[in-house]
Amino acid sequence: MFFQPTLLLLSLIAPAALGHEHYGTTLYPRAEGGAAAPKFGYHGLDGPLNWYSLDKDANELCAKGTHQSPINVAGSACAATPSSLSIKIPAAPHGAELENLGTTVDVTTNGTLLNAGKKSDLVQFHFHTPSEHAVDGKYYPMEVHFVFQAADASISVVGFLIELGPLDPLLGAVLAGLPYIPFTGNVTHTKPLDFTALEKHFASSGTYQYAGSLTTPPCSEGVSWTLSCKPLSVDVAGYEAITDLIKFNARYTQNNEGVNLLEHSALEQVLARIN
Ligand SMILES: *[C@@H]1O[C@H](CO)[C@@H](O)[C@H](O)[C@H]1NC(C)=O
Ligand SMILES: *[C@@H]1O[C@H](CO)[C@@H](O)[C@H](O)[C@H]1NC(C)=O
């Protein structure tokens, strides 16, 4: 089933495992004086196929979780955004903090997600290139994730796919800061941010919703995912600027039918025979 209304509890979060998807939440507080280099990556032995082996206790769900993200969503699952589902992000007239986390860049600003009566606070938003989610098998050049946390510590992520086209002014105001943060831990400010158009886009474009996980270690489940059905757009210069800095940082799409792909991989079967 595509939409899983029952969210699993976020019970297996290990603070020692660094990831960027939940950076700034109570589960992984922001570091004073800039982020340290992450303990995982996207290539070779640091990459998503091996996240479990980097820390078998903390990252167990990366290999064994059965409600993992990202996924390939079915375009037909797009539903009109209900009035009980909304984002409210106040303008940041003086800009907001933009930090290079090594595997992505994130912006910390305030905001709220209301979902069926539950309120969550915006912690940060960050970028992936290319997109992590696909729609009917199609990937996009970028994806932005707005990470929210509720008082009960549960995490919700609102994602927007990003296609090539005219530069969205909000994205432009963020990407303008990239030249000032070339190294991990570098911090600058964005240009003034206005989220009015984004709130309207979210309300009017329909959404995909499912229960999944963090897309970075420790791959914790119980994450409530909402993807806007309609992509935002970025121009070629903006796309080049962000891929030059954060390179490739997308986890492979998971099976959304309750199995972990790694448990079905040839390697896992070989290991099972050896052990
Ligand atoms: C977020 O809210 C806090 C507390 O009200 C405020 O100090 C801060 O400036 C706000 N951040 C932004 C980017 O507007
Ligand atoms: C950016 O990070 C580098 C490497 O840690 C450091 O040498 C440099 O001083 C930082 N620049 C700023 C403006 O913080």
TrEMBL record:
Cofactor: Zn(2+)
GO molecular function annotation: carbonate dehydratase activity; zinc ion binding
Keyword set includes Transport: no
Catalysed reactions, as listed in the record: hydrogencarbonate + H(+) = CO2 + H2O
Enzyme Commission code(s) on record: 4.2.1.1
Residue ranges of domain Alpha-carbonic anhydrase in the record: 38-275
Database matches in InterPro entries: Alpha_CA_prokaryot-like (IPR041891), CA_dom (IPR001148), CA_dom_sf (IPR036398), Carbonic_anhydrase_a-class (IPR023561), Carbonic_anhydrase_a-class_CS (IPR018338)
Similarity comment: Belongs to the alpha-carbonic anhydrase family.
Purpose: Reversible hydration of carbon dioxide.
Protein name: Carbonic anhydrase
Organism: Lasiosphaeris hirsuta
